[in-house]
Amino acid sequence: MVAAPPQLPGLSLELPDPDSDTISTMEFMARLEEAWAVCDRFDLQTEICRGRILRAVRDREKRGGEGRGTGFLQWLREREISKTRAYSLIQLADSSDDLVGEGMLELTSVNNFSKRAFLETSQADPEVQQLISEAANEGQQITRKQVRRLTDDFTAATSPLLPQEIRQRTADNLLPARAVAPLVRELAKLPDQQQDDLRRVLSDEPELDRVKDVTNTARWLSKAAEAGLAVRACQLEHLDLDKAVQEAQRLDALGLLADSLAQALALESAVLKLHTCWRRLNGLQERLWVES
Question: Helices 115-122 and 126-137: crossing angle, nearest 10°?
């Protein structure tokens, strides 16, 4: 073993010697994975505490008066913490308080989570949170992969966005949950009419290949709709984007349409940026002429 470096309180690591010939590469990497998991758990506790500190500072600054909130931002600047980072830590602390405060998770069981697994659990459905919390309370180590797998299983078996045939085949292990869960996420982005159309396709052919095809179709439909709303040219009266989407779907060319709309959006953004820069340059030229 390598000489142990100074340890943080509560943090104990046993790292294998990288120069040792008596340990296989597989065992060497396994030990490093274990050490990394220890760091993850220690990091989680630290960041929950930091989130609570930041929340206290923010809540103090929320009290009435002029300049409300400026003290919190100043506090962040002094410690070189971005606002986004601060609020992500506060969210982590809130999630911890919710899981522990509602009695699902024991306080000491937080140590059984990796940081990413804890974040995934805090964003999962209540039923999934309950199952994960029970496993953690029993002493099991919770990884992000486990949380995602359980979330996918629950989503595939219970989502009302899926036809009954798909849910039943998933429950019977005839369809893998990891293939059905992305379908649910994509269907949720679509309007009701498109959801109904795709559900009918799935009901007629509840097979894995059809699930994958419909997932891709739903993904391209949502991307096309999102880009179409952002592209100003698509807002012209003589353009019928819905009809274009229907025709692209008939021709199995939704991907091309979505990519075209994305490129149009990028082009419009570039033109707008060029126009803004040109106006600024013109203003600077006028100021330079006046000064000279």
Answer: 140
